[in-house]
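User: Can you help me understand a structure? I only have the sequence.
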Amino acid sequence: MTARTLDGVETAAGITEDLRLRVAALAARGVSVGIATVLVGDDPASQLYVSMKHRQCQSIGMHSIQRELPANATQRQVEDVLDELNGDPACDGYIVQLPLPDHVDTDAILARIDPAKDADGLHPTNLGRLLLNVGQPATTPQPCTPRGVIELLERNGYDLSGKHVTVVGRGVTVGRSIGLLLTRRDINATVTLTHTATVDLHRHLRAADVIVAAAGVKHLVGPADVSPGAAVVDVGVTRELDPETGRQRVHGDVHPDVAEVAGWISPNPGGVGPMTVALLMSNVVEAAERSLG
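Assistant: Let's start by predicting it. Here is the structure, written out as C-alpha coordinates:
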Protein backbone atom coordinates (compact mmCIF):
# COMPACT_ATOMS: atom_id res chain seq x y z
CA MET A 1 0.00 0.00 0.00
CA THR A 2 1.23 3.49 -0.84
CA ALA A 3 -0.56 6.35 0.89
CA ARG A 4 -2.42 9.05 -0.97
CA THR A 5 -0.68 12.40 -0.49
CA LEU A 6 -2.61 15.18 1.23
CA ASP A 7 -1.09 18.04 -0.76
CA GLY A 8 -1.31 21.19 1.34
CA VAL A 9 0.07 23.45 -1.38
CA GLU A 10 -2.58 22.47 -3.91
CA THR A 11 -5.41 22.46 -1.36
CA ALA A 12 -4.40 25.86 0.04
CA ALA A 13 -4.35 27.28 -3.50
CA GLY A 14 -8.06 26.50 -3.82
CA ILE A 15 -8.80 28.33 -0.56
CA THR A 16 -6.67 31.27 -1.65
CA GLU A 17 -8.53 31.61 -4.94
CA ASP A 18 -11.85 31.74 -3.07
CA LEU A 19 -10.41 34.39 -0.73
CA ARG A 20 -9.36 36.54 -3.71
CA LEU A 21 -12.97 36.65 -4.87
CA ARG A 22 -14.23 37.52 -1.40
CA VAL A 23 -11.62 40.25 -0.93
CA ALA A 24 -12.58 41.71 -4.31
CA ALA A 25 -16.25 41.66 -3.28
CA LEU A 26 -15.37 43.50 -0.08
CA ALA A 27 -13.33 46.04 -2.04
CA ALA A 28 -16.38 46.68 -4.23
CA ARG A 29 -18.21 47.64 -1.04
CA GLY A 30 -15.42 50.02 -0.02
CA VAL A 31 -13.69 47.67 2.43
CA SER A 32 -9.92 47.19 2.19
CA VAL A 33 -9.00 44.06 4.15
CA GLY A 34 -5.88 44.43 6.30
CA ILE A 35 -3.78 41.97 8.30
CA ALA A 36 -0.96 42.81 10.71
CA THR A 37 1.90 40.83 12.20
CA VAL A 38 3.85 41.51 15.38
CA LEU A 39 7.37 40.08 15.46
CA VAL A 40 9.55 40.35 18.57
CA GLY A 41 13.22 39.47 18.09
CA ASP A 42 15.16 38.20 15.09
CA ASP A 43 14.55 34.44 15.09
CA PRO A 44 15.17 33.33 11.46
CA ALA A 45 12.30 30.84 11.39
CA SER A 46 9.87 33.44 12.74
CA GLN A 47 11.09 36.00 10.19
CA LEU A 48 10.52 33.45 7.42
CA TYR A 49 7.00 32.67 8.60
CA VAL A 50 6.08 36.35 8.82
CA SER A 51 7.42 37.12 5.34
CA MET A 52 5.44 34.17 3.91
CA LYS A 53 2.26 35.50 5.47
CA HIS A 54 2.75 38.97 4.02
CA ARG A 55 3.44 37.60 0.54
CA GLN A 56 0.31 35.50 0.76
CA CYS A 57 -1.90 38.38 1.84
CA GLN A 58 -0.63 40.55 -1.01
CA SER A 59 -1.41 37.80 -3.53
CA ILE A 60 -4.99 37.74 -2.23
CA GLY A 61 -5.40 41.51 -2.52
CA MET A 62 -5.17 42.36 1.19
CA HIS A 63 -2.92 45.05 2.59
CA SER A 64 -0.45 44.25 5.36
CA ILE A 65 0.93 46.01 8.41
CA GLN A 66 4.23 44.93 9.97
CA ARG A 67 5.30 45.71 13.50
CA GLU A 68 8.78 44.57 14.57
CA LEU A 69 10.35 44.92 18.00
CA PRO A 70 13.83 44.01 19.27
CA ALA A 71 14.35 40.85 21.32
CA ASN A 72 14.79 42.94 24.49
CA ALA A 73 11.46 44.73 24.10
CA THR A 74 9.60 44.98 27.39
CA GLN A 75 6.18 43.54 28.15
CA ARG A 76 4.76 47.07 28.10
CA GLN A 77 6.29 47.86 24.72
CA VAL A 78 4.75 44.77 23.16
CA GLU A 79 1.39 45.51 24.77
CA ASP A 80 1.49 49.09 23.44
CA VAL A 81 1.81 47.75 19.89
CA LEU A 82 -1.17 45.45 20.44
CA ASP A 83 -3.23 48.31 21.83
CA GLU A 84 -2.40 50.32 18.71
CA LEU A 85 -3.53 47.51 16.40
CA ASN A 86 -6.68 46.88 18.46
CA GLY A 87 -7.72 50.46 17.76
CA ASP A 88 -6.58 50.66 14.14
CA PRO A 89 -9.57 50.48 11.75
CA ALA A 90 -7.21 49.53 8.89
CA CYS A 91 -6.38 46.27 10.69
CA ASP A 92 -9.07 43.58 10.49
CA GLY A 93 -6.96 40.91 12.15
CA TYR A 94 -3.43 40.26 13.37
CA ILE A 95 -1.09 37.70 14.85
CA VAL A 96 1.71 37.83 17.36
CA GLN A 97 4.40 35.51 15.99
CA LEU A 98 5.34 32.83 18.50
CA PRO A 99 7.51 31.96 20.31
CA LEU A 100 8.08 35.21 22.18
CA PRO A 101 11.26 35.88 24.19
CA ASP A 102 11.25 34.17 27.59
CA HIS A 103 10.86 37.41 29.55
CA VAL A 104 7.57 38.25 27.79
CA ASP A 105 4.38 36.74 29.27
CA THR A 106 2.89 34.97 26.25
CA ASP A 107 -0.47 34.25 27.89
CA ALA A 108 -0.92 37.91 28.81
CA ILE A 109 0.00 38.98 25.28
CA LEU A 110 -2.47 36.62 23.63
CA ALA A 111 -5.20 37.74 26.03
CA ARG A 112 -4.59 41.40 25.13
CA ILE A 113 -5.52 40.86 21.47
CA ASP A 114 -8.99 42.12 20.56
CA PRO A 115 -10.94 38.83 20.17
CA ALA A 116 -12.55 40.18 16.98
CA LYS A 117 -9.06 40.67 15.48
CA ASP A 118 -7.63 37.35 16.65
CA ALA A 119 -6.27 35.94 13.37
CA ASP A 120 -4.75 32.87 15.06
CA GLY A 121 -8.00 31.96 16.83
CA LEU A 122 -6.18 31.45 20.14
CA HIS A 123 -7.65 34.23 22.29
CA PRO A 124 -9.15 32.74 25.49
CA THR A 125 -12.53 34.31 24.67
CA ASN A 126 -12.64 32.70 21.23
CA LEU A 127 -11.51 29.32 22.56
CA GLY A 128 -14.18 29.59 25.25
CA ARG A 129 -16.89 30.40 22.71
CA LEU A 130 -15.76 27.46 20.61
CA LEU A 131 -15.95 25.21 23.67
CA LEU A 132 -19.52 26.29 24.41
CA ASN A 133 -20.74 26.26 20.82
CA VAL A 134 -20.99 22.61 19.76
CA GLY A 135 -23.89 22.62 17.33
CA GLN A 136 -24.33 26.11 15.88
CA PRO A 137 -22.32 27.66 13.02
CA ALA A 138 -19.02 29.10 14.24
CA THR A 139 -19.09 32.91 14.30
CA THR A 140 -15.70 33.56 15.91
CA PRO A 141 -12.12 33.03 14.70
CA GLN A 142 -11.05 29.39 14.89
CA PRO A 143 -7.50 28.09 15.59
CA CYS A 144 -5.97 28.19 12.12
CA THR A 145 -3.64 25.16 12.27
CA PRO A 146 -6.32 22.76 13.60
CA ARG A 147 -8.73 24.23 11.07
CA GLY A 148 -6.09 23.66 8.39
CA VAL A 149 -5.72 20.00 9.41
CA ILE A 150 -9.46 19.42 9.11
CA GLU A 151 -9.79 21.30 5.81
CA LEU A 152 -6.83 19.37 4.39
CA LEU A 153 -8.61 16.08 5.07
CA GLU A 154 -12.11 17.13 4.07
CA ARG A 155 -11.11 18.92 0.86
CA ASN A 156 -9.31 15.74 -0.20
CA GLY A 157 -12.45 13.66 0.24
CA TYR A 158 -11.85 12.28 3.73
CA ASP A 159 -15.00 12.09 5.89
CA LEU A 160 -14.19 12.59 9.58
CA SER A 161 -17.67 11.78 10.86
CA GLY A 162 -17.51 8.91 13.33
CA LYS A 163 -13.74 8.50 12.98
CA HIS A 164 -11.39 7.97 15.93
CA VAL A 165 -8.67 10.64 15.88
CA THR A 166 -5.57 10.28 18.04
CA VAL A 167 -3.72 13.56 18.59
CA VAL A 168 -0.08 13.48 19.71
CA GLY A 169 1.00 16.57 21.66
CA ARG A 170 -0.92 18.88 23.98
CA GLY A 171 0.30 22.30 22.89
CA VAL A 172 -2.27 25.10 22.73
CA THR A 173 -1.65 25.78 19.03
CA VAL A 174 -2.79 22.31 17.93
CA GLY A 175 -3.11 19.55 20.51
CA ARG A 176 -5.37 21.16 23.08
CA SER A 177 -7.49 23.11 20.62
CA ILE A 178 -8.08 20.69 17.74
CA GLY A 179 -10.43 18.54 19.79
CA LEU A 180 -12.82 21.50 20.11
CA LEU A 181 -13.19 21.52 16.33
CA LEU A 182 -13.17 17.78 15.70
CA THR A 183 -15.95 17.10 18.22
CA ARG A 184 -18.31 19.76 16.87
CA ARG A 185 -21.50 18.19 15.55
CA ASP A 186 -20.76 19.23 11.97
CA ILE A 187 -17.58 17.10 12.07
CA ASN A 188 -18.50 14.48 14.72
CA ALA A 189 -15.16 12.75 15.30
CA THR A 190 -14.04 11.05 18.52
CA VAL A 191 -10.75 12.36 19.91
CA THR A 192 -8.00 10.88 22.07
CA LEU A 193 -5.36 13.39 23.21
CA THR A 194 -1.96 11.86 24.05
CA HIS A 195 1.13 13.48 25.59
CA THR A 196 4.39 12.77 27.40
CA ALA A 197 2.68 10.96 30.29
CA THR A 198 0.49 8.76 28.09
CA VAL A 199 0.96 5.07 28.83
CA ASP A 200 1.43 2.85 25.74
CA LEU A 201 1.30 5.52 23.03
CA HIS A 202 1.67 2.78 20.41
CA ARG A 203 -1.68 1.24 21.42
CA HIS A 204 -3.49 4.57 21.06
CA LEU A 205 -1.91 5.20 17.67
CA ARG A 206 -2.76 1.74 16.33
CA ALA A 207 -6.39 2.21 17.37
CA ALA A 208 -6.76 5.42 15.39
CA ASP A 209 -8.47 6.00 12.06
CA VAL A 210 -6.65 9.35 11.94
CA ILE A 211 -3.37 10.38 13.57
CA VAL A 212 -2.52 14.06 14.03
CA ALA A 213 1.16 14.19 15.04
CA ALA A 214 1.90 17.55 16.65
CA ALA A 215 4.59 16.84 19.27
CA GLY A 216 7.63 18.37 17.55
CA VAL A 217 9.63 15.13 17.94
CA LYS A 218 11.45 13.87 14.85
CA HIS A 219 9.92 10.65 13.43
CA LEU A 220 8.01 9.91 16.62
CA VAL A 221 5.36 8.02 14.65
CA GLY A 222 6.76 4.99 12.82
CA PRO A 223 5.23 2.42 10.45
CA ALA A 224 4.53 -0.03 13.27
CA ASP A 225 2.42 2.61 15.04
CA VAL A 226 -0.03 3.05 12.18
CA SER A 227 -3.02 0.89 11.36
CA PRO A 228 -3.08 -0.03 7.64
CA GLY A 229 -5.11 2.51 5.70
CA ALA A 230 -5.16 5.16 8.44
CA ALA A 231 -4.92 8.87 7.64
CA VAL A 232 -1.77 10.47 9.09
CA VAL A 233 -1.36 14.24 9.31
CA ASP A 234 2.18 15.39 10.14
CA VAL A 235 2.16 18.74 11.95
CA GLY A 236 5.23 18.76 14.21
CA VAL A 237 8.51 20.28 13.04
CA THR A 238 12.09 19.54 14.06
CA ARG A 239 14.99 21.47 12.52
CA GLU A 240 18.45 19.96 12.28
CA LEU A 241 21.65 21.27 10.75
CA ASP A 242 22.65 19.26 7.68
CA PRO A 243 26.44 18.79 7.99
CA GLU A 244 26.80 18.34 4.22
CA THR A 245 25.04 21.54 3.15
CA GLY A 246 25.33 23.62 6.32
CA ARG A 247 21.61 24.38 6.08
CA GLN A 248 18.72 23.63 8.37
CA ARG A 249 16.64 20.61 7.37
CA VAL A 250 13.01 20.22 8.39
CA HIS A 251 11.79 16.88 9.74
CA GLY A 252 8.27 15.96 10.71
CA ASP A 253 6.92 13.84 13.54
CA VAL A 254 6.11 11.05 11.07
CA HIS A 255 8.75 8.67 9.68
CA PRO A 256 8.80 8.61 5.83
CA ASP A 257 8.20 4.83 5.82
CA VAL A 258 4.71 5.41 7.25
CA ALA A 259 3.67 6.17 3.66
CA GLU A 260 3.94 2.42 2.94
CA VAL A 261 1.30 1.63 5.59
CA ALA A 262 -1.06 4.60 5.75
CA GLY A 263 -3.94 5.24 3.38
CA TRP A 264 -3.52 9.03 3.50
CA ILE A 265 -0.51 11.09 4.57
CA SER A 266 0.46 14.76 4.54
CA PRO A 267 4.03 15.73 3.62
CA ASN A 268 6.13 17.86 5.93
CA PRO A 269 6.90 20.45 4.66
CA GLY A 270 4.18 21.01 2.09
CA GLY A 271 1.21 19.70 4.05
CA VAL A 272 -0.29 21.54 7.01
CA GLY A 273 2.02 24.59 6.76
CA PRO A 274 0.41 26.10 3.63
CA MET A 275 -3.02 25.30 5.05
CA THR A 276 -2.26 27.18 8.26
CA VAL A 277 -1.39 30.32 6.31
CA ALA A 278 -4.50 29.99 4.12
CA LEU A 279 -6.80 29.58 7.13
CA LEU A 280 -5.08 32.48 8.88
CA MET A 281 -6.06 34.62 5.89
CA SER A 282 -9.57 33.16 6.05
CA ASN A 283 -9.94 34.28 9.66
CA VAL A 284 -9.05 37.85 8.69
CA VAL A 285 -11.35 37.94 5.66
CA GLU A 286 -14.18 36.53 7.77
CA ALA A 287 -13.53 39.21 10.39
CA ALA A 288 -13.87 41.88 7.69
CA GLU A 289 -17.10 40.29 6.46
CA ARG A 290 -18.51 40.16 9.99
CA SER A 291 -17.71 43.84 10.45
CA LEU A 292 -20.27 44.58 7.73
CA GLY A 293 -22.89 42.59 9.58
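Now, to help you interpret it: The two ends are 49 Å apart (CA to CA). The chain has nine helices and eleven strands. Let me know which part you'd like to focus on.
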